[in-house]
Specification:
Number of helices: 6
Radius of gyration: 21 Å
Largest sheet: 5 strands, antiparallel
Order of helices and strands: HEEEHEEHEHEEHEEHE
CATH superfamily of the largest domain: Impact, N-terminal domain
CATH class of the largest domain: Alpha Beta
Structural class: alpha+beta
Distance between the termini: 25 Å
Strand content: 35-45%
Number of strands: 11
Amino acid sequence: MSTAANKFVYYTIEKPAVAEFKDRGSKFIAYAYPVSSMEAFKKQLADLKKENPKAAHHCFAYRVGIDGNNFRVNDDGEPAGTAGKPILGQLDSKELTNIAVIVVRYFGGTLLGVPGLINAYKMATMLALQLTPIIQKQVEVNYEVHCDYTNINEVHTIIKQYNCTTIKQEQQLFCNITVGIPINRLEEVLYKLRDIKGVELIISK
C-alpha cells in the first residue's frame, strides 16, 4: 500500500454509503463505513447483523491505521477467498484505510460458483465506494495538552495555525485538550506549546 509509504497523508471515505448488486436472484448489499478502530468496526457489524437477521452471509474486510498492517477479511461461510479478499482488493485498489466494508448476502437459490461470488462481492464493494467521497487526511500524533485557563487562547492559536485537530476538550479551572498534531509539523508544534508557561504535554494512547 502506498499509504504506508506516504507517512504524512492517507485516504479514507468521508461518510457511510450503501449499494446493492444482484446476480441470479442473490442480493449483495455493501455497507461502507469510515472506522478508526476495531471496536468501531465490531459495533457496525453487530448492528448490521441485527438489521439483517435473515441474511445468509455477512462478509467483510477492514483496514485500520496507516502502517498497512492492521486489516482483516472474513468470508462468513462463503467458499474461502470468494468474499473478504475481493472486498479488501477494492479498498486497496483505492489505497484506502480507516474503512470497513460489510457485504450482506441474501441467497437467491442459485449457486454462483467461485468466479460469480468473487465478482459479486467485488462489484457490490465497488458500487458502494463510488457513492461516498474519498478524502485525504493528514497523519496525526495525539497529545494531551494540560494548561491553565489563562493560557488557553495561546494554545488555541497554535492549534489553529498548524491545522491540528481538537479531539476533546475539558475546561474548568485547568484545561485539558486532546489534540491531533500533523506528523510533519510535530516538532514545531511541540516546541511552540512547550514555550508557553505552565503547559504540560503527554502523548495520548
